[in-house]
Design a protein that fits this description.
Two copies of one chain form a homodimer. The first copy, chain A, is built from eight helices and ten strands. By secondary structure, chain A is of the alpha+beta class. Chain A folds into two domains: about 1-90, Arc Repressor Mutant, subunit A; about 95-250, Chorismate lyase-like (Chorismate lyase, 3-Layer(aba) Sandwich), CATH 3.40.1410.10. In chain A, strands 4-5-6-9-8-7 form a six-stranded antiparallel sheet. In chain A, helix 2 crosses helix 4 and helix 3 packs across helix 4 (about 60-75). The longest helix of chain A has 14 residues, at about 1-15. Chain A is globular. The termini of chain A are far apart. At the A-B interface, strand 7, strand 8 and strand 10 of A face strand 7, strand 8 and strand 10 of B. Strand 10 (about 245-250) of chain A pairs antiparallel with strand 7 of chain B. Chain A binds a DNA duplex through helix 4.
Chain lengths: ~250, ~250
DNA sequence: CAGTGGTCTAGACCACTCC
DNA sequence: GAGTGGTCTAGACCACTGC
């Protein structure tokens, strides 16, 4: 009886804002867990209740709680291990760096980029940045980085993030190698996915001055928008790669 | 009792070739369906048995058959619709072309490439092609295509496929715009995924002669290996794009 | 050993599609 | 109305983990 009441309540609740289409219970449970993570109530590495307990808390069966957790695992939001339990996904600095870093060597193996130069600047946002972040974002941090791989300077990255989301970033210097793990640990902002656009460009004078490349050489320019669990654009990144020895690798399905 | 026998049988069967680790029943059911598709027993667009019937055929419960079908749907191998049924995924010529075609315009919308020139050649395989296809592949078809987008010739593709898999391809001319749908319909070869490597290159004399680009202009070169449901490399494709007006778009998760 | 997730079953009810 | 997939439940048993 209790469960039926919950279900009816959810129906009314969701219908009021979503054209009479109630969300399935398992999705509600999943959204609820995501909300807890976003709010900081559940932090990365923290163990979640068991399927049985979670179901009891939410007033659903163990099977429904299980389906919610399975979906969160598929999305990489939690990690589950038989006999151990379910924890909020922890993207370690090492593994995280490679999660969205697509450069691979000729054999397809991961490469280890070394941070060479970093500058952090606080400035007013550009119109394009406001278009992406929202019009209310007037100030941003710009993090410019230069990386070398196998001793050659071939990666230039420029990350832009809103000041409102990353308060007092300048006091955090030096920033760690892997920014996304840092965003999560220091600010509770978890990157869910990244949309990238790749174009071919010619190395300009600034590229030639900073990297092991000559003006006019072909390079790949990647423009990325990183989206967090709340579906906000939280970072815009523009990277320029010299792909003489490396390639951008991706699998399409 | 019957079901227990089936389960024990599967255990022994799989254990003999897989280090005592039996595959879950739902995976066995899924693999069985894939095998039927690969063998041509089930063709694209054909309706599968209902969950209940499939479970009965395989000696598993409806829930287990359901899980197998859900996984196949997630992998894009079948399409399911409430009230209608489950059919083997049909990649229509139109939709298929965009499945692995990542070029998007400035707004991120799909673009419609127009086939301008096509040549098909039968020749001996190169060492690199044998490395990808297997050493026994001595002959290949090379399909060279030139495409225009919005009236500008900016895409050059070269697809290489083994003669053994695509018998008498030369009699099929002219080939349709979307090769992967054609592979599936004419040869029963379904592309499951594609691994791509992107590099920046400078347009060479051949690019300048064939496309609306000048020698030395930066271009993106994409080297693709297409893998079918049997996990074979069935096509190697090298594409060169001019990205003045378009970008290669991808979402990382 | 207790507790966890992983698999599998059986059955209920609902929503959608098509005849 | 018959048949389909979608959701949800309840309960069984197994495999793995850690104390």
């Amino acid at each position: 009886m209790d469960k039926i009441l919950v279900q009816d309540f959810l129906y009314v609740y969701v219908a009021s804002m979503n054209e009479m289409t109630p969300l399935p219970l398992w999705q509600r449970v999943g959204e609820d867990i995501i909300a807890r993570i976003v709010s900081g109530d559940l932090k990365p590495g923290v163990m979640l209740p068991s399927e049985t307990d979670l179901g009891a808390e939410m007033g659903v069966s163990q099977g429904t709680a299980r389906r919610a957790l399975a979906e969160l695992e598929r999305r990489g939001i939690v990690e589950r291990r038989q006999g151990r339990g379910t924890v909020v996904a922890t993207t370690t600095p090492d593994s995280d760096h490679f999660h969205f870093f697509r450069l691979r060597d000729a054999k397809g193996s991961e490469v280890t980029p070394v941070l060479e130069v970093e500058t952090v600047e606080k400035r007013r946002s550009t119109a394009a940045e406001r278009e992406a972040f929202g019009e209310d974002v007037r100030q941003v941090y710009a993090i410019d980085r230069l990386r070398s791989i196998n001793g050659k300077r071939i990666v230039r990255e420029s990350s832009v993030i809103p000041v409102t989301l990353f308060a007092a970033l300048e006091t955090r210097a030096p920033l760690p190698n892997a920014l996304y793990a840092f965003y999560q640990q220091a600010y509770g902002i978890a990157i869910q996915r990244a949309d990238e656009r790749l174009r071919a460009v010619s190395a300009d004078a600034a590229d030639a001055a900073a990297m092991d490349v000559e003006t006019g050489d072909p390079m790949i320019e990647v423009t990325r928008r990183a989206i967090d669990l709340s579906e906000r654009v939280v970072e815009i990144r523009c990277s320029r790669y010299v792909t003489d020895d490396l390639a951008y690798a991706v699998t399409l399905r």
